[in-house]
Amino acid sequence: MKSLLPFALMALVAVVAFYAFPYNLAFLTRVVITMILVLSLDLLIGVTGIDTLGQAALYGTGAYAAGLFAVHVWADPVAGLLVGGLAGAVVAFVSGLLLMRTHGLTLLMLTIAVAEVFQELANKLDWLTGGADGLGGITMNPVFGTWQFDFIGQTGYIYAVCVLFIVTAILKVVIGSPFGLSLRGIKDSPARMRAIGTPVGRRRVAVYTLAGAVAGIAGALAAQSTALVSLSVYDFQVSAEAMIMLILGGTGRLWGALIGTAVFMAVHEVAASVDPFNWLFIIGFLVLAVVYAVPRGLIGLPEEIRRMVGRLK
Amino acid sequence: MTGLEVIGLNKAFGGLTVARDINITLAPGDRKALIGPNGAGKSTFTNLITGILEPTSGEIRLDGRDIGKLSEAQRVKAGIAKTFQITNLFKSLTVRDNLRLPLLERRGLTGRLIRRSDREGGVEDEVESLLSQFRLSDMGDRPVERLAYGQQRLVEMAMTLALKPRILILDEPAAGVPSSESPLIAEAISGLPQDLAVLVIEHDMALVFKVARRIVVLVSGAILTEGTPEEIAADARVRDLYLGASHG
Fold first, then answer.
1. What is the rounded CA–CA span in Å between residue A12 and residue A139?
2. Does the structure show a pLDDT above 90 at B21?
3. Is the pLDDT of residue A231 over 90?
4. What DSSP element (H or E) covers B80?
5. What's the 3-state SS for A206-230?
6. What are the residue ranges of helices labelled H in A189-199?
7. Which residue has the higher pLDDT, B246 or A285?
8. Above 0.90 for ipTM, yes or no?
9. Measured between CB atoms, does B161 come within 8 Å of chain A?
10. Choosing a second label site near A113 at 20 to 30 A (CA), which of A248, B179, B212, B238?
11. What residues contact residue A88 under an 8 Å CB cut-off, 6+ apart?
12. What is the pLDDT averaged over residues B35-54?
């Protein structure tokens, strides 16, 4: 029962946001999609200890796959999500066979390189992807043939929130499973995992593939809700910001990924409208303050406050 | 033979020979100790047996089967397990989770994505019995990093035992343990299953003489001598090694 509490809280926040900001649903949808992307990153960085800056490769491929599928094959949203997830998983699996043999800085550099390669590929294949003009002409069918996407974005928001719930629930189950425990073991000590007989390399590829599926689903959602896929889905900024959001919220427990994304994007939105020129300054300050004061991220804040209050007494 | 057989094992890094024609057998029930001064090649020997290093030549047989080509993970599955010289645990995980991982791995369950990791009946029973065997029951839900060092060494041993090995290599089980907690380690070693073949690599001579029934002395990568504790204690060469040649 206790494990359902955060889900109830999540549902409450989603409903309140829906009614409180009826004209910002497009932005809220973007937040929800980014949450899914950051969840996929938490699975790698937070749970397994695989540091990567190439999540855009998986996210972008999911977006293009879903976009192309909608344009050329079938405009069903749910089928598109599955296609996007599958595309992300395939890219992660194939690139993972090479990437997961490396660690540390080498891994960071290679993951960045993979995303760049995909961006260039999408640029060169402009007959297929639209190149720098982006892939347009995406019109989605109603969700389950019933709920039409509307221009205020109500359907899009509810649809994205449902996907977020399902993805979070699945990842919670995975992390609590024996497989998930072995991932946490790999984070603490890969050498010890090998010594108890776990094929660590294969586990790393497996979790990278799973994260690829999740990031691909996020990309597919982005393609469907904005009806456009541009080369920017492969931008380094996508990967880097996802990592900042994760660190801001706190790694390893999924909820941190959600909180970090919400706070980062909300502050970004507000700061950019208050001061369009210096908003990066505010974001930078926020990240510095959190990393300095609460190294474990915003999710560690209540405990940190409790400790500080305890010290005062 | 049943058990472990090491035949003519050599290992060289370039021109540097770190293992020279090593022959050792380890049968079920054996309690052997491997001693030797720093740099004698004890760690190299362990790494050769467990598959972290590949020998230059020689054979490693388990129950008559050549296991020299198996990977580290495959050798664990075949029944060879070792503890780490420096405690190498899953520090942020609880003691129970630390024990669950090898138990789940032994049953081939760590690839499973559904069902919670703490709901596997057989595994949970074994977790509890290991906890009580090593007197860790009170601290089962504590993260390992909050345990005293001696207790961490016990978790280390319990984890390795969880793999149900037939050959157990204890790599300096008492290293870094304060002498007040050292009897705890000796007691734990005495409590190991009788049919297990145990090789202890240790500096602490008091511990070695307490637990070992045979002692192998390794010097500069080669075996100097092998014998009972009494024979080793009486051996002038061994005394020279440990006391220095100056005693005459």
1. 30
2. yes
3. yes
4. strand B80-82
5. HHHHHHHHHHHHHHHHHHHHHCCEC
6. 190-195
7. A285
8. no
9. no
10. A248
11. A58, A59, A61, A62, A65, A212, A213, A214, A215, A216, A217, A219
12. 89
Residue of A nearest to B104 (CA): A178
Of B124, B200, B134, B122, the closest CA to residue B161 belongs to: B134
Residue B164: burial class (beta carbons within 10 Å; 0-12, 13-18, 19+): middle
Instruction: Tell me the sheet residues that pair with B7.
Output: B59
Fold classified for B4-90+165-247:
Rossmann fold (3.40.50)
On whether the CB atoms of residues B226 and B217 are closer than 8 A, the answer is: yes
Percent of chain A as helix, strand, coil, to the nearest 5: 80, 0, 20
Tokens of A313: 């007494």
Q: Do A178 and B120 touch (CB under 8 A)?
A: yes
Q: Which has the closest alpha carbon to A257: A33, A13, A12?
A: A33
- Amino acid sitting at position A92: A
Structure tokens at A105: 């800085």
- Its domain, for residue A102, covers 2-312
Domain ranges of chain B: 4-90+165-247
* Greatest C-alpha distance within chain B: 68
- Rounded Cα–Cα distance for residues A102 and A93 (Å): 15
pLDDT single digits (tens) B118-151: 988 899 999 999 999 999 999 999 999 999 888 8
- Across residues B185-191, what is the average pLDDT? 87
Report how far residue A214's alpha carbon sits from residue A35's, in angstroms, rounded to the nearest whole number: 11
| Stretch A29-58: mean pLDDT | 97
For the ranges A60-69, A244-253, A301-310, the lowest mean pLDDT is seen at A301-310
User: What's the confidence (pLDDT) of residue B244?
Assistant: 61
> Would the pLDDT of A101 be above 70?
yes
**Torsion angle of C-alpha atoms A296, A297, A300, A306, degrees rounded to 10:** 100
Residue B65, judged by CB atoms within 10 A of its CB (0-12, 13-18, 19+), counts as: exposed
CA distances from A148 to A75, A151, B139, B244 (A): 12, 10, 56, 88
| Low-confidence winner among A13-17, A211-215, A274-278, B68-72 (lowest mean pLDDT) | A274-278
The answer to whether the Cβ–Cβ distance between B84 and A176 falls below 8 Å is no
The per-residue pLDDT for A195 is 85
pLDDT in tens, B192-225: 988 999 999 987 888 898 899 999 999 988 999 9
The answer to whether the Cβ–Cβ distance between A197 and B84 falls below 8 Å is no
Of how many residues is chain B composed? 248
Distances (CA, A) of A13 to A7, A246, A259: 10, 19, 11
Number of domains in chain A: 1
| C-alpha to C-alpha distance for A239 and A56, rounded to whole angstroms | 5
A95 to each of A58, A203, A205, A219, how far by Cα in Å? Answer: 10, 14, 9, 18
Chain A partners within 8 Å of B81 (Cβ): 195-196
From CA A32, how far away is CA A48, in angstroms rounded? 23
For the cut 80, the answer to whether the pLDDT of residue A228 exceeds it is yes
Q: What is the pLDDT of residue B243?
A: 64
Which is nearest to B158 in space by CA: B138, B133, B175? B133
Q: At A209, list the tokens.
A: 């593939």
